[in-house]
Amino acid sequence: MTDTKTVLTTTQWLKSAAVVCIAIGLAMAMAPFTFLAPALSFFVDLAHLPLDGAQQIDTDTEALLSAISGGLLCGLGAAVWLIADHLYARDPTLARRMITLTLLAWFIPDSLGSLAAGAWFNVVMNSGFLALFLVPILMSRTSQEAAA
Predict the structure, then answer these.
(1) Taking the model in full, what pTM does it have?
(2) Considering only CA atoms, which of 72, 69, 40, 77 is closest in space to residue 57?
(3) Quick check: 122 and 111 in contact, CB under 8 A?
(4) Which domain, by its residues, includes 115?
(5) How many domains would you assign to the chain?
(6) How far apart are CA 7 and CA 63, in angstroms?
(7) Each residue of 28-39: pLDDT tens digit?
(8) Which of 21, 97, 111, 28 minimizes the C-alpha distance to 62?
C-alpha cells in the first residue's frame, strides 16, 4: 500500500531536484557564451582543487563540451521531472528504479572520468547532487516497506 502523503512529498522533492538539475544544465550550456563564464571557470577550478585559477573554460572545444554536458544535464532533469510527474503516483517502485538507474548511468561514468582527469572534488560535488535525488527515493522506499 502506498501512502499518498509520502508519494506527494517524494514527487515534490524529485521535481524540485529536477528543476535544480535543469537550471544547472542550462547555466553550464550557456556559461561560456554569457556573463556566467567566470562562474563556470570557478566550478572547473573547484573541481580540480586547489583553487588557483589554473583551470579555465577558454577554448572553443571546452565551450562545446560545456554546452554538450549542460544539455545532457538539462535532459536528465527533464527526464526525472517527467517520471516524477507522470509515473511516480501510479507505480512508485518502477519510477524509483527508472530514476535510480538513470542517475547511476550519469554518476558512475562522470565520477570515474572526473577521477581520471584529476578532478577528484567533482566526485564530492556529484555525490551531493546525487543525494538530492536518492534521499527522497530511499526515504519513500523505506516508508513503503514499513507500510507493507
Answers:
(1) 0.90
(2) 40
(3) yes
(4) 4-147
(5) 1
(6) 39
(7) 999 999 999 999
(8) 28
